[in-house]
């Protein structure tokens, strides 16, 4: 699975990380729905950490399609509400 963090880079993650990403994505959705900025920031920061630590960075010179595109690390809660809703970024 190829995950892009907007404004940063692409990472190749093993499919085994999908469950962890989905859990954190669901936490981010709940935080957006309840307008809890602190909870959103914690969940989204952990999600980004999983991508960065479990993934292998794709070289800048490689052109690969992304399976998942995450908002930039500094996304505001208001901006995140547009993306983290319903099933979130990772349906499942």
Key structural traits:
single chain; 92 residues; alpha+beta; 4-stranded mixed beta sheet; 3 helices; 4 strands; 45% helix; globular
Give structural notes.
The protein has 92 residues and is α+β, with helices and mostly antiparallel strands. It has helices at residues 18-33, 37-54, 77-83, and strands at 2-5, 9-12, 56-57, 68-70. The chain has a 4-stranded mixed beta sheet, covered by helices on one side. Strand 1 and strand 2 (9-12) form a beta hairpin. Helix 1 (18-33) packs antiparallel against helix 2 (37-54). It starts with a strand and ends in a 9-residue tail after the last helix. The mean pLDDT is 90.
Shape: globular
Largest sheet: 4 strands, mixed
Residue share in β-strands:
5-15%
Which parts are unreliable, with pLDDT below 50 for 5 consecutive residues or more?
none
How many helices does DSSP assign? 3
- Provide the gyration radius in Å: 13 Å
State the separation between the terminal residues, measured CA to CA.
15 Å
Sheet/helix structural class: alpha+beta
The residue fraction in helices comes out at 40-55%
**Mean pLDDT across all residues, rounded?**
90
> How many beta strands in the DSSP annotation?
4
Lateral arrangement of strands in the main beta sheet: 3-2-1-4
Succession of helices and strands: EEHHEEH
Summarize the structure.
The chain is α+β, with helices and mostly antiparallel strands and 92 residues long. It contains three helices and four strands; from the N terminus they run E-E-H-H-E-E-H.
Fold blueprint:
Elements: E1 2-5, E2 9-12, H1 18-33, H2 37-54, E3 56-57, E4 68-70, H3 77-83
Parallel strand pairs: 1-4
Antiparallel strand pairs: 1-2, 2-3
